[in-house]
Amino acid sequence: MADHNDVSLQPEERVRALTKKGSTVEVNDDVPPRRYFRSGMEMIRMANIYTDEGNIEHAFVLYNKYITISLFTKALIEKLPKHRDYKTANIPEKKDTLKKLKDVAFPQAEILKKALLRRFEQEYAQYVVKKKAEDDALAQEQSKQRALDAERERVAEMQRRQREQEQFSAFEEMIRRQELEKERQRVLLEFATPTQAELWRLVASCVANW
Questions:
Q1: Angle between helices 106-192 and 33-53 in degrees, nearest 10
Q2: 4-25 residue pLDDT tens
Q3: Which domains does the chain have, with CATH numbers?
């Protein structure tokens, strides 16, 4: 069941919820009709007090209880004739109930319904404005968060590429040093090894000195 205090509901739905809340009167054959009439009079009295105090929600509920079930189904006066003792009830009380329904309950319920609709429309409009502001703030926060996440990913990707570049540069440097070392060893070996002509001259020199 919808909650009539829920400002996020459409005004008409909140009024329906209040109407339904007021639709709780049931006819019981064990209860004398006169008690229903007297209860109805007390409801009207309390509804008038609530109306004067500006508590139109409670007043609206009580008027609907007096009318019974709801403005869209059966009125109290249609349910009481089904009671087994209805015909024996005091006729002036029944006439007074009919008069109160016609002159007080129905008109007052309709007046309060319009007043409630106006108030609920204002509350709903305020809710819509507040909800939009909250949604906009949330959207901005989410946008900022997405931007922060994107920046973190960008920085992380840049750092990853930098590390890869550094590793590649280190590998290139290692290869270059290995090539330089090979070249150095080749040069040393080339100049450290005597040529064949030098070997012949060395042999000839040794033979002459012998």
A1: 60
A2: 888 999 999 999 888 888 776 6
A3: 11-131 (1.20.58.80)
